[in-house]
Amino acid sequence: LPFLSGSRSSKTFKPKKNIPEGSHQYELLKHAEATLGSGNLRQAVMLPEGEDLNEWIAVNTVDFFNQINMLYGTITEFCTESSCPVMSAGPRYEYHWADGTNIKKPIKCSAPKYIDYLMTWVQDQLDDETLFPSKIGVPFPKNFMSVAKTILKRLFRVYAHIYHQHFDSVMRLQEEAHLNTSFKHFIFFVQ
Fold first, then answer.
1. What pTM did the predictor assign?
2. Is 166 annotated as a binding residue?
């Protein structure tokens, strides 16, 4: 992949988070992909009958992480310290980074740095078996919904940044249909 060749961009681009094949979560992902194929995004985000809400949210959160990761990965060469010295979505929306653990007080940083912090933080959450259990029968924590909401709220910021600062690059790469579909799917899901 050409966009992975740069030293900085390969650091920002996170490896795809895989859902184990044969697992129930994998079956849910396949269901989601099949429903998406119908072209009806509103139907695609609906909880399948008889399924656990937390598990459905977990599977979709992983999927959105992978989608946003891939979309951002295609434009990292245009999102640099000099082109995007501040993580923003226009003059009215500036985002400062804090993870509550390593960085407690929000810091102002460039968009690529912010997105690197964000994607690393999300990946750490997804890899944490106490937050996102991958084994059947292991319960989700009581705070799962608030953790998922925080992840999705922060992933939204990456879409916002891409749309506001890099849509011209997305157009040049002829990726706007993919970005728009991904974003529409994301919005329907979080609603």
1. 0.81
2. yes
Residue 166 Cα distances to 24, 28, 50, 169, 177, angstroms? 37, 33, 41, 5, 14
Is 79 part of any known ligand binding site? yes
CATH assignment of 61-190, among 1.10.3720.10, 1.20.140.30, 3.40.50.2300, 3.30.365.10: 1.20.140.30
First to last CA, the chain: 33
Rounded to 10 deg, the angle between the 53-73 and 24-37 helix axes is: 60
Does residue 78 have a pLDDT over 60? Answer: yes
Q: Is 161 annotated as a binding residue?
A: yes
Tokens found for residue 10: 């390969």
Please indicate if the annotation marks 84 as binding a ligand: yes
